[in-house]
Amino acid sequence: MDYDDSSDPFPTALKILIAGGFGVGKTTFTGAVSEIAPLSTEELLTTVSEGTDDLTGVENKTTTTVAMDFGRITLDPGHVLYLFGTPGQERFWFMWDELSEGALGAVVLADTRRLEDCFAAVDFFEQRGMGFIVAINEFDGGYRYEPEEVRSAIDLDPRVPVVRCDARISSSGIATLLTLVKHLLAHAPAAPSYGAHT
Amino acid sequence: MAAPHDGPWLDESAGRLVRPYTVSDGRTRPTAQMDLLTQVMATGGPVIGYQGPDHTAALGLCAAPTSVAEIAAQLKLPAVVTKVLLSDLVDCGALTLRAPDFYHNPTDRSLLEAVLDGLRRQL
Ligand SMILES: Nc1nc2c(ncn2[C@@H]2O[C@H](COP(=O)(O)OP(=O)(O)OP(=O)(O)O)[C@@H](O)[C@H]2O)c(=O)[nH]1
Ligand SMILES: [Mg+2]
Questions:
Q1: Residue A92, ligand 1, Cβ within 6 A
Q2: How many A from CA of A167 to the centre of ligand 2?
Q3: Which of A44, A132, B30, B93 could form a disulfide with B83 if both were Cys (CB 3.0 to 4.6 A apart)?
């Protein structure tokens, strides 16, 4: 923004997170709505564990890679939306902090057969005050709970929308994203008027 | 420990790691501040100094504005390593970069409205 220039070739890059428990359909959802084949970036993590029973004091370094899926939707010539699937394993959740930095909001995918798997993601966004919705990804064998049943099982704020989706179908994913953005708009404060304070 | 030998330096656990670190000369700290959504684009200017094949490959992906995440995925290199390569290219004038427009201001509705309109056009 410091380089405000009418010939600015760069579109505005925005992001939405696709979160939820292990195997709930994050990669499938991201791929279904993306205009590019879902890609994955890896972060290299070096974890240093100091062996307590190690008299030499040599640190035990292990390096792991964490893959993050992402997809892209070109909204218009000036705006491009990236969707990032958050890493499912809880031990990598510190990475979410970085991913959630500056995100518009999040879709928390839930599988009604393992509803508790989405609790941690819901907690994460609630604690950070980030706008999110819950989308029930209906697997074929899944019992069809009503969204309201899911809401009370999660003990969700009544304002947070709960919708059904099929992560494999592009239009269903787009409709889910639209629900999220409408929710964010509904709760975004109006343009600052007087003495805005946080 | 196995004796050093010629040929690819691979072992079960390190195989994936050795090459990325070689590519970046063992560096994991890019000189330019970059996020996965930082966009880069080739300036078209001459590349000063020899950069190496991975730099050339990275530069080849940047004809149009492209995100760091996409370049990392295409190069099949970890994001940290990709950031080092790209910041080398920024330093030598081959690339320009643009930080992401993060949504930090909840009173800014215009970004959300642009997203809403853009998503509607996808249906
Ligand atoms: N029947 C059905 N299968 C689905 C649906 N969504 C995803 N799947 C399948 O469920 C499996 C897991 O989906 P992924 O998209 O890989 O889930 P994920 O959340 O990315 O998984 P992790 O990254 O491992 O946590 C895959 O085999 C998908 O094909 C759905 O809506 N219906
Ligand atoms: Mg996945």
A1: no
A2: 12
A3: B30
Closest of A177, A97, A173 to residue A137, by C-alpha:
A173
0.90 exceeded by pTM: no
Q: Would you state the structure tokens that stand for residue B113, as one six-digit string?
A: 């409205």
The shortest CB-CB distance from B122 to any of A42, A73, A191 is to A73
Tens-digit pLDDT profile for residues A4-17:
445 788 999 999 99
* DSSP assignments along A13-43, one per residue: EEEEEEEESTTSSHHHHHHHH-SS--EEEEE
3-state secondary structure of B59: helix
How many domains in chain A?
1
ipTM higher than threshold 0.95? no
Q: Is B35 helix (H, G, I), strand (E, B) or coil?
A: coil
Query: Cα Rg for chain A, rounded, in angstroms?
Result: 19
Domain ranges of chain B: 4-100
**What is the three-class DSSP state of B31?**
coil
CA distance A144 to A139: 9
CATH code, A115: 3.40.50.300
Q: How far is the CA of A140 from the centre of ligand 1 (A)?
A: 11
